């Protein structure tokens, strides 16, 4: 099922290949200077590729619909289709394939750059989320790209997360595939990743143990709470990293203590009513422990924005631009095919099958004609050669 066209965030000018900064978000201009709003609560859905983020987002929307009327955002520029109706869809703003083509990038570079470009529209994005809150959307659910590191370790992921957290209550849901975590070492690496995201985002964190229709998640919860049980599981595995895993599990003890986990099946919808309760706990946690920190951050930003230095004043300190190894050009300003703002109706359509066939036929005809004239020329040349030979023989 494909989503209905979302709202396009692009409207402003193109900024090179995207050079966003959190300071670009002018809080005063966004009518967000009064303080962190109560709603919508932003729920950022993260997880390893294939863990079930998109399916989870769809289920969460369904379960939260009546109570929280979620506003939905898709930030994965590379997905072909999403199984829910997104209010904002990055694919309506940035043409990921065109980004790859124009900047000569591979798939991951394309996603990062597309996200960077989207982030240059962060003020507009924040404004849309604010207005959604005023229209009665109590939650804003944000689905992120398949490649988790693209979001968690990129400047733009950081700007989006931090930007939202300084304007709205924000929490992170980490979707974990329980089926893939049955091996203690894989479980441990997944947990280390979750832990690193927690430290990086500094936001309330909920682990959704997904796919419990395929595998019960009690073993994961047991490994988190009972060190001996995890050691026993580890003993059964012959791996050279066992010692490291053992040490890590001890280190993560404190992390587990404060972690909220919930078993769900994004496919069947099992566990979602409990998950909603946990999400509300996370919101309370944000209000209690995190809001003061982010409130302080926003005050600092407001103060910084009030005293914006004149860039011209520091012109002498500016360095000299060094050309990059790659030929990174600004996107061609071409109305036919720009990387920015490709609302579905504006995207140059692929030729349909009939048109392609006609084009192929026309090409075929031309090739035929060329070939015929080549043969004709060849034969004429041969004939004139033979005539010349005959003339010479007659003269002799
Ligand atoms: N059995 C079962 N399958 C699931 C569940 N959740 C997701 N899946 C399947 O897992 C696969 C990946 O799901 P997606 O929702 O696309 O996962 P994703 O994390 O968004 O994937 P990427 O964005 O491509 O990384 C799909 O085949 C889903 O049908 C679940 O709860 N149970």
Task: Tell me what the structure shows.
By secondary structure, this protein is of the alpha/beta class. It has 2 domains: 22-306, Rossmann fold (3-Layer(aba) Sandwich), CATH 3.40.50; 355-390. Helix content is 49%, strand content 9%. It has helices at residues 53-68, 96-103, 107-119, 122-134, 148-152, 155-165, 184-201, 218-225, 227-235, 242-251, 253-257, 272-306, 353-395, and strands at residues 41-47, 71-74, 88-89, 139-143, 170-177, 205-210, 260-263. Strands 3-2-4-1-5-6-7 form a 7-stranded parallel sheet, sandwiched between helices. Strand 5 (170-177), helix 7 (184-201) and strand 6 (205-210) form a beta-alpha-beta unit. Helix 2 (96-103) crosses helix 3 (107-119) and helix 9 packs antiparallel against helix 10 (242-251). The longest helix has 43 residues, at 353-395. The radius of gyration is 29 Å and the shape is elongated. The protein starts with 40 loop residues before the first strand and ends with a helix. The structure holds guanosine-5'-triphosphate. Guanosine-5'-triphosphate binds at residues 47, 49-55, 76, 146, 210-211, 213-214, 265-267.
């Amino acid at each position: 099922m494909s989503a209905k066209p979302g709202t396009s965030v692009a409207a402003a000018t193109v900024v090179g290949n995207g050079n966003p900064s959190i300071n670009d978000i002018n809080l005063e201009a966004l009518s967000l200077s009064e303080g962190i709003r109560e709603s919508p609560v932003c729920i950022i859905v993260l997880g390893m590729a294939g863990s079930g983020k998109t399916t989870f987002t769809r289920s969460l929307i369904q379960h939260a619909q009546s109570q929280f009327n979620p506003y939905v955002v898709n930030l994965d520029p590379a997905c072909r289709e999403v199984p829910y109706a997104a209010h904002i869809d990055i694919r309506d703003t940035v043409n990921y394939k065109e980004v790859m083509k124009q900047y000569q990038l591979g798939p991951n570079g394309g996603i990062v750059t597309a996200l960077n470009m989207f982030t240059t529209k962060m003020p507009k994005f924040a404004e849309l989320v604010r207005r959604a809150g005023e229209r009665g959307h109590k939650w804003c659910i944000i689905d992120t790209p398949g490649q988790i590191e693209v979001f968690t370790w990129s400047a733009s992921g950081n700007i989006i997360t931090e930007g939202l957290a300084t304007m709205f209550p924000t929490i992170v849901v980490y979707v974990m595939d329980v089926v893939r975590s049955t091996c203690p070492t894989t479980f441990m690496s997944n947990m280390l990743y979750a832990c690193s995201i927690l430290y990086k985002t500094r936001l309330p964190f909920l682990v959704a143990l997904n796919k419990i229709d395929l595998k019960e998640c009690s073993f994961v919860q047991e490994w988190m709470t009972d060190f001996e049980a995890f050691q026993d599981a580890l003993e059964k595995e012959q791996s050279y990293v066992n010692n490291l895993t053992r040490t890590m599990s001890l280190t993560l003890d404190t992390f587990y203590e404060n972690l909220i986990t919930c078993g769900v099946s994004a496919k069947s919808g099992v566990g979602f009513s409990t998950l909603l309760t946990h999400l509300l706990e996370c919101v309370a946690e944000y209000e209690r422990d995190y809001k003061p920190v982010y409130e302080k951050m926003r005050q600092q930003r407001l103060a910084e924005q009030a005293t914006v230095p004149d860039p011209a004043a520091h012109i002498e300190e500016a360095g000299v631009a060094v050309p990059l190894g790659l030929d990174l050009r600004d996107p061609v300003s071409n109305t036919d095919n720009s990387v920015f703002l490709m609302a579905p109706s504006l995207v140059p359509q692929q030729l349909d099958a009939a048109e392609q066939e006609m084009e192929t036929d026309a090409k075929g005809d031309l090739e035929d004609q060329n070939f015929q004239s080549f043969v004709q020329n060849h034969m004429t040349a041969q004939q004139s050669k033979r005539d010349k030979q005959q003339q010479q023989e007659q003269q002799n």
